[in-house]
Write a structure and sequence with these properties.
The chain is an alpha/beta fold and 211 residues long. Helices cover 56% and strands 10% of the residues. The chain has a five-stranded parallel β-sheet, sandwiched between helices.
Length: 211
C-alpha cells in the first residue's frame, strides 16, 4: 500500500496518532507536501464525505476524521508556507454563521499565510458583524468567507450588504468559497471573487493585495 493510501485509511479511521506518524514519515522521506495533503489527507476526507452522504458513517466518525485531518495538516504547515515571506496584505477569514465546517477554511488560511498575508481567523459560525468589525479595525484588504452547507451560504449576501452599510464596501474585496459555492452565486450576491480551492484562493488573495 502506498503511503498516501495508508494516510487516507488512517484518516477514515480517525486515527490521530497513525496519521501523525505516517505524515511525519512521508515528510522525512521528502515526499512532496502538496501530494501528502491532496493524495493522502484530502483523499481520506473525500471517502468519509461520500460514506457520510450515504449514511454509512455518522457525525462521531466524521468528527474523528476531521480531528485526524487537522493533526496531519498541522505537521505540513511549515512546508506549505514559505518561511520569511513578508506580509503584503490583511485578510479576515471565517466560516459563516450557522456553519461549523472549518477544515477548508483552515486550509485557505494556511495557504494565504504561505503567501505572506496576515490572516485574522474568526473561526467558524461567524456573525456577519464580526467580519465587518474586524475588516474595519484591522484595515483588511479582504473578507474571506467559507460555507459548506446550502442552508448557510445565504449568510454571504448578508455580509456583502453589511459591508455596504458600514461604508467599507469600496475598501474591501469579498472572496467566497466552499463546496456549494459557484461563480454564478458569487455574481448573484455581488461578492468579488469565487475560487474553488485553497491554493487558488491564496494565489488570488496575494494578487488582490498586490503581492
Ligand atoms: Co458536514 N456536511 N454536516 N460535518 N461534512 C457536508 C458538508 C455534506 C456535504 C455531507 C454530505 O451529506 N455528503 C453535508 C452538506 C449538505 C449540503 O448542505 N449540501 C453536511 C451536513 C448535512 C452536515 C450536518 C447538517 C449533518 C447533521 O448534523 N445532520 C452538520 C451541520 C453542522 C453545522 O455546520 N451546523 C454537519 C457536521 C459535520 C461535522 C461537524 C461532523 C464535520 C465538520 C468538522 C469540521 O469541519 N471541524 C463535517 C464534515 C467533516 C463534513 C464532510 C464529510 C467533509 C467536509 C470537509 O472538511 N472537507 C462534508 C462532505 C464533503 O465535503 N465531502 C460534509 C474537506 C475540506 C478540505 O473541503 O471544506 O470543501 P472543503 O474545502 C475545500 C473547498 O470547498 C475550498 O477549499 C478546500 C479545498 O482546497 N474552500 C474554499 C473552502 N472554503 C473556501 C473559501 C474560499 C475559497 C475556497 O475563499 C474564501
Amino acid at each position: 500500500m502506498s503511503v498516501f493510501a495508508e494516510i487516507s485509511e488512517q484518516i477514515q479511521n480517525g486515527k490521530v496518532k497513525g496519521v501523525k506518524e505516517l505524515v511525519q514519515k512521508a515528510i522525512d522521506e521528502k515526499v512532496n507536501a502538496k501530494d501528502i495533503l491532496e493524495k493522502g489527507l484530502l483523499a481520506g476526507m473525500d471517502v468519509i464525505g461520500e460514506k457520510f452522504r450515504k449514511n454509512e458513517v455518522f457525525v462521531p466518525q466524521v468528527l474523528l476524521a476531521a480531528r485526524a485531518m487537522n493533526a496531519g495538516t498541522a505537521l505540513l504547515k511549515p512546508l506549505l508556507t514559505q518561511a520569511g515571506v513578508k506580509a503584503s496584505g490583511k485578510v479576515a477569514i471565517g466560516t459563516v454563521k450557522g456553519d461549523l465546517h472549518d477544515i477548508g477554511k483552515n486550509l485557505v488560511k494556511l495557504m494565504m499565510e504561505g503567501k505572506g498575508l496576515e490572516v485574522f481567523d474568526l473561526g467558524a459560525n461567524v456573525d456577519p458583524e464580526k467580519y465587518i468589525e474586524t475588516a474595519k479595525n484591522e484595515n483588511c484588504n479582504i473578507i474571506a468567507m467559507s460555507a459548506l452547507l446550502t442552508t448557510t451560504m445565504s449568510v454571504m449576501p448578508e455580509v456583502v450588504e453589511a459591508a455596504k452599510k458600514a461604508g467599507i464596501r469600496d475598501k474591501v474585496k469579498i472572496m467566497i468559497g466552499g463546496a456549494p459555492i459557484t461563480q454564478t452565486y458569487c455574481d448573484q450576491i455581488g461578492a468579488d471573487y469565487f475560487t474553488p480551492d485553497a491554493a487558488s484562493a491564496a494565489d488570488l488573495a496575494a494578487k488582490v493585495c498586490g503581492a
